[in-house]
Each structure stands twice: as C-alpha cells, then as structure tokens.
C-alpha cells in the first residue's frame, strides 16, 4: 500500500504541481481531492510549459490514471478548455476520470462571487472570482449540481427549476443584476454532458483496487493549509479543506490507507489575496523575490505577496496535517541573498506564540521573531545531490526541517523535472 498525500504547507502556490509530477512517474493514480479552478499549477517537461487549473499533474505520464475527485468543484467550461489544449498538444486523455460526486460551478456562481466580494467593500477576501465559494456554499446547502447530474438531464432540469429562481431572486432583488435564463443554462449543460460523458465515472472501485494491490496512489492537494476553511486564517481562506483530512474525504480514503503525508513548502513564503501574513516583505527585497521567483498567480496573474519562511506556520502545518516528509521548492530563488531569515515564532502583546493563532486580528499584529543565517551567494541550480549544495544552503535547509519538525526529503532548485535533489530512496 502506498498512498501519498501531498499537501501545501503555506498559503498555496508552493509548487505542488512539480512535486506531484515527479512522484507520478511511479504512480498508478493521481487524484485531485478538493478545490476548483481557483488553483493553478505549472509543469515543465522538456522545456515545454503546461498550465493546468483542474486536470491533475500526472496527466503527462501515459500510464497514470488521473482522477478529479469527489471534493472538487469544477467549471465544465474550464475543464473542456484544458482537455482541448492537452489533446491539441498530443496528450492521451484516455486515463482521465471525473468523479460523479464532484460538484459543478454553475454560470451564476462566478457572478455571485464578484458581487459578494464587492459588497464586502474593505473587508473583501481577494477571491479568484471563479465562483468556488458560492459553489461550495450551494453544496453545503444541498442545492448544488454534481457532475453525475449530467448523466440524468431530466433530473438536472427539475433541480434547475427549483434552484434558478432562488439565484435569480438574489441577483435581481439584492444586487440589481441581470437574471440567468433557464433554457440557456440547460442548453449549455446538455452540451457539456455530451462532451464530458467519456470521463465521468465512479472512482471508488479504481481507487480501492489500486490501494488494495499496493500500487502508488497520490492525492494531489490544491491551495494550502493556511487557506483551509477550518485550519487557516478564516475568513481569509478558500471554501474547501486543503489539509490532509480534507484530502482523504475528497478522495474517499481513510487514515489507515496513508503511508506518507508530504508537505510542500516554498523556501520563502507567498500569499495571494488579503489576510494576515506575519513575515511579509513590503519592500524592495520583497519586490526582488517576486520578480526572481516569478511570483504572479497562475490563475489570475495577480502579483503574489512575498515574505520570509515562517517556521511557525510550517510547524503548525506539520502538526495539523501529520506531515512526515517535506518537499522544499524554489531554493534557487534565494541564491543571491547575503543573508536569509527564518521566522521562528511570534511575539503577540508581549507573549510568545509558536504557531499562528486563530484570532486573526491578533495574528495581523504579531511581531515575527527572526533567526538570521548567512546566504550562499552561489547558484544551486545544478545541484542534484544534497552534498552538491553550498554549505550555507545545506544549513538553511536543515534548520527549516528542524524548526518545522519533519525531514526535508526533496529539494527543488528550478522548474524542470531534473532540477531536483531527492534524498529519499524511490523518490
Ligand atoms: P477562492 O478560493 O477563489 O474563494 O479565494 C479565497 C482565497 O484563497 C483568496 O485569497 C485566493 O487568493 C486564495 N486562493 C484560492 N486558490 C488559491 C491557489 O490555488 N493558490 C493560492 N491562493 C489561492
């Protein structure tokens, strides 16, 4: 049995796509467990760059089954655009499976996302406007549309007759926005039904068979622990559960099945959207790291906020997810710095705190406590073994692992597959 849960340890954009792509070489199944097309990942193969919002990173490995799992909300339009892009590039999508239980983003969801954000004014969250929050809200209210509904169009029609008037009431009466037309939605989703039919299946037997046969199954996380609806910096979070617990529910597996929980962390920190960010660098160094690390959102193109590595966040992520192995990405972005800093904890109103607190108005005002280490001022891009790294870089990596509480088993020093240091056998 070999189920690897890959979770983001920070605020998303840690580089999970590349890590999953590497592990997928030996995987039978890569399963995207939650989130929607608010996420984005970039995979570079032989110098060619692929950008996905929904399709799991393993799709470029011909033998790997890629599942869009139960916990995902997907916009069929976005999914079909990815399907087209990949098929035009010559990829074989015979191994793509979409769970009947995944939910769909309906045309009114992105519109409501925008209107709700505008209504929040200064307290807006900075969502991706993809309709993810409204779609998850409808799932919880039990008025959501599941992918499986595309196989029962009469049922979908009946549900639409009940749900659409509720939505149009909100649009028209509350926001003075134009309503949606029943027949247009029906026509559009009937077309999606015929185009997506070949991918829709119940992943349960596939996943259980692979796990039972001891084959590698990877649960690909989206977003990160600090964006988790329960564990993150609420309300500045996404509407799903990017933590390992959420991954299991989204995949349909239990804790007993998990062999490794791999936390992916960037060698510094980034965040998009609003909300507390204790180690944020609001200066020219932050600007430098943003440019050097190309820190612009894959989905929205927004500039990411940038800061030092926060070991208080990392320690928290290791604890709440049960992370037992760390993949550290983008170490090379720090190559030219004279000194590097790590936040070891916070001071909040004179009190020491070793992890991010639930009270975000306190978290917003903490003073991060930093440890300073010498930089290495040397390129790490060609390192393939841990010993190839300059001594100061090795010390930085080891110190991060020590403070976080888990070993750093994989280090990425560039976007390409080969620009990786693997410190664990079979990885
Ligand atoms: P939503 O998920 O679009 O509702 O956005 C809620 C918050 O999560 C915003 O701060 C987004 O920027 C953030 N977010 C959502 N998806 C991602 C992601 O894949 N990477 C980083 N941030 C994300």
Task: Report what the structure shows.
The protein has 427 residues and is α/β, with parallel strands linked by helices. The protein folds into two domains: 3-90 and 202-422, Adenylosuccinate Synthetase, subunit A, domain 3 (Adenylosuccinate Synthetase, Chain A, domain 3); 103-199, Adenylosuccinate Synthetase, subunit A, domain 2 (Orthogonal Bundle). Helix content is 32%, strand content 23%. It contains twelve helices and 20 strands. Strands 1, 2, 5, 6, 7, 8, 9, 10, 11, 15, 19 and 20 form a twelve-stranded mixed sheet that branches. Strands 14, 16, 17 and 18 form a four-stranded mixed sheet that branches. Helix 3 (108-120) crosses helix 4 and helix 5 packs across helix 6. The radius of gyration is 22 Å and the shape is globular. Inosinic acid binds next to helix 4. Residues 11-13, 38-39, 125-128, 130, 132-133, 222-223, 227, 236, 238-239, 272-273 line the site of inosinic acid.
- Please state the oligomeric state of the protein chains shown: single chain
Question: What's the overall average pLDDT, rounded?
Answer: 96
* CATH C-level class of the largest domain: Alpha Beta
C-alpha-based Rg, rounded: 22 Å
End-to-end CA span: 16 Å
CATH-defined fold name of the largest domain: Adenylosuccinate Synthetase, Chain A, domain 3
Under CATH, the homologous superfamily of the largest domain reads Adenylosuccinate Synthetase, subunit A, domain 3
Instruction: List ligands, each type once.
Output: inosinic acid
